[in-house]
Amino acid sequence: MARTIMGAVVSLDGYLAKLNGEIGPLFEWYDNGDVEWRFSEKQEESARTTKASKEFMESVYTDIGAVVIGRRLFDETNGWGGVPAAGDRVFVVTHSVPRNWEFAATAPFTFVTDGVESAIEQAKEFTGDGQVDVAAGQVGGQALRLGLIDQVVMNVVPVVFGAGRPFFAAMGPGQDILFSNPTKVAQGDRVTHLLYDVRRN
Amino acid sequence: MARTIMGAVVSLDGYLAKLNGEIGPLFEWYDNGDVEWRFSEKQEESARTTKASKEFMESVYTDIGAVVIGRRLFDETNGWGGVPAAGDRVFVVTHSVPRNWEFAATAPFTFVTDGVESAIEQAKEFTGDGQVDVAAGQVGGQALRLGLIDQVVMNVVPVVFGAGRPFFAAMGPGQDILFSNPTKVAQGDRVTHLLYDVRRN
């Protein structure tokens, strides 16, 4: 059974990006180190991080089969030109299927119009025994509230934006969601990596 | 010259409390360990934490001379019955001095009606070479935006509230505020302690 992991790079005050979409120094750590590596074979550009960051990322993301994202990320990246940034298939949660997307015929993208739960179910079925990466933000927040997330990874950058797009978005008040103590902690340069299991109560 | 430190216990999604003021499991770590200690001689109740939490807290809070808080915390605690929870004097940022406070005649409390900057200035002058503890939230957020904070400590509890009163409040969009990499990290039980220096650019 596939496991779901929700993660992202996040400012110390909990934002994935500023209100205007800019990300400031959130990805400095991804290019300021001595150790060169690739997140997956498909990536063209390699990362250059500390050894600690490389080891954390490689130990956490071992086998991503599919990715679940929201419509905004899809639109902002134009679906990464039809090539998934990770995994073999992307499930896009959206109210309507985009018309005339130039890569629609060949890209391994599925547009899911009946909600986050359905998208995650389809992604898990596709993935088999691997990992389903659920984007933090609106989609991840809804999934977490629905009890559909197994692990959370936060790559915390020591910067405060003051306002922005939250990592834990679209949740609203409700029951406390308890996580384990962090099961992995790693200190990179301009990033602190934290991995949690979501407790099932 | 006194140093200013802004800190608090905070949920993983960045809240000091829920919208209704409840704190859920934020202080479990303060009473779930084997090591007994007191934050200051004035405290009646001792903490029982892990050794790691005790050592972190004692190494960070070495010499609190004064505390700066907002009016809400003052009202919610009734000024801790006129006895500062830490430090020798409390500076309360408020629009108006409370009338008929029962402890007004004897309590070492100063009500500051001309803003956060003035309160911190007075607290630093009072403190001399020690630490001024600035409450996170509205007051701390304003002070951070004004460049008046030297260090930030976050005691992060692995719980997600979904909504609440933010640690970094009242900031709004603006220039990025960069911190150092954490200068101390400690893992307790149900809390991760992080200490940062605020960089001056």
UniProtKB/TrEMBL annotation, chains A, B:
A UniProt-annotated Pfam family: RibD_C
Span of domain Bacterial bifunctional deaminase-reductase C-terminal: 5-172
Gene3D superfamilies assigned to the protein according to its UniProt record, in alphabetical order: Dihydrofolate Reductase, subunit A
Domain of life: Bacteria
Protein name per UniProt: Dihydrofolate reductase
Gene source species: Amycolatopsis magusensis
Source lineage: Bacteria, Bacillati, Actinomycetota, Actinomycetes, Pseudonocardiales
